[in-house]
Amino acid sequence: MNRQTKCSWTSYACAIALSLGALHAHAGEGGLYAPTAPKGSTFVRAYNAGNSELSVSVGNTDLRDIAPLGSSDFSFLPAGSYSAKVGSSSLPVKLDADRYYTLVNQPGAEPKLVEEAAFENKQKALLRVQNLSDSTLSLKTADGKAAVVDKVAPDGNGDREVNPVKVSLALFDGEKKISDLKPVTLARGEVVSLYITGSGSQLSPVWVKRPAKTD
């Protein structure tokens, strides 16, 4: 009887340990996926393409102290129409439920609202190009031999699912290399967007991804 009781308690302890491990693993994925939000919420973040810190507000949501060439994480709020304040500029925005948006602060231009399509594949990563320039551009391997996201039109976007890996890519205008890009590490279930602002020969391509969790 004692032996059976001991085995029973051992099995129970193992079950608790496995449950806690599963909970810990799920919590660790919080840096890759959207924060928990009420059903029907909309999600918004800000990308600062300028050269000084930026604060953004949408309704009662504040995104503060965004570093130059940096972004905030996504915040959720009720879907609806709002007046968004991006630095000293304001613009009306309509945010639909279950959608993701990025407010982009552009030097010398009006801020822009960019919709980011949701990504549900937890086994792959997604490379997305958001081309806010006036040229048709391609994301290629550094040697230019293989296109990763090809011929993205001005004010357009394109994306591609890839295996999680650290990659070094380059931005091209046709066969002409515009610039090599910083190496970027892609994680499962993660969206990494290349935002391209500027015009003519003054293009600024920057990788934008959700900030790493520090807690």
Structure description:
The protein is mainly β and 215 residues long. The protein has one helix at residues 2-28, and strands at 41-48, 54-58, 61-66, 70-71, 75-78, 80-86, 89-95, 100-105, 112-116, 125-131, 137-141, 147-152, 156-162, 166-167, 169-173, 176-180, 184-185, 191-199, 202-208. The protein has 2 domains: 37-118, Immunoglobulin-like (Sandwich), CATH 2.60.40; 119-215, Immunoglobulin-like (Sandwich). The chain is built from 1 helix and 19 strands.
Number of strands: 19
CATH level 4 superfamily of the largest domain: Carboxypeptidase-like, regulatory domain
User: What does the largest sheet look like?
Assistant: 5 strands, mixed
- CATH topology category name of the largest domain: Immunoglobulin-like
Give the helix level as a range of percent.
Answer: 10-25%
Compute the average pLDDT.
Answer: 85
Helical stretch count?
1
**Into which percentage range does the β-strand content fall?**
over 45%
Class computed from helices, strands and strand pairing: mainly beta
Gross morphology is globular
Order of helices and strands: HEEEEEEEEEEEEEEEEEEE
First-residue to last-residue Cα separation: 46 Å
Tally of domains: 2
CA-based gyration radius: 21 Å
User: In terms of per-residue confidence, which ranges show pLDDT below 50 for 5 or more consecutive residues?
Assistant: 1-34
Assign the CATH architecture of the largest domain: Sandwich
What CATH first level of the largest domain would be assigned? Answer: Mainly Beta
